[in-house]
Write a structure and sequence with these properties.
Distance between the termini: 35 Å
Protein name: N-acetyltransferase domain-containing protein
Number of helices: 3
Keywords: Transferase
CATH architecture of one domain: 3-Layer(aba) Sandwich
Number of strands: 5
Structural class: alpha+beta
Radius of gyration: 16 Å
InterPro entries: NAT_camello-type
GO molecular function, one term: N-acetyltransferase activity
CATH topology of one domain: Aminopeptidase
Shape: globular
Largest sheet: 3 strands, antiparallel
Strand content: 35-45%
Helix content: 25-40%
Organism: Phytophthora aleatoria
Length: 118
């Protein structure tokens, strides 16, 4: 799995995936749902065949208004993923000018942030 041509950054992605699979994804209920968050799986069906096309982990940030106490959602994606950018916009999410990074040391992988008020 390579998200970058640089071997060091490929290593960062592989370590991130390894950590997620052994921690968060190994106990989805404990890591996402117990704290008031959730875990959604996006699927698409074509020709009677269903496949997973995305996953979203929701993390509760506060006890606010809205269904299940959620008043807004934000999503991040790689700015190069044009289909994801269009998909989020079509769902009513608005791109905001906030610099997001998956790593701060080293500073790497900037992500676009989209917000939707519920």
């Amino acid at each position: 799995m390579a998200f970058d041509d640089n071997p060091y950054f490929c290593y960062l992605w592989e370590e991130r995936l390894r950590k997620d699979l052994t921690n968060d994804f190994a106990d989805i209920e404990g890591s996402h749902m117990a704290s008031g968050g959730n875990f959604w799986v996006a699927t698409a069906t074509q020709d009677e065949s269903t496949k997973t096309v995305g996953i979203i982990g929701l993390q509760r940030r506060s006890e606010s208004v809205g269904e299940n106490g959620i008043k807004s959602l934000f999503l991040t994606t790689n700015p190069k993923k044009k289909q994801a950018l269009a998909f989020y916009a079509a769902l009513g999410y608005t791109k905001v000018d906030e610099l997001m990074r998956f790593w701060e040391n080293p500073q790497y992988f900037e992500a676009d942030k989209f917000v939707k008020q519920l």
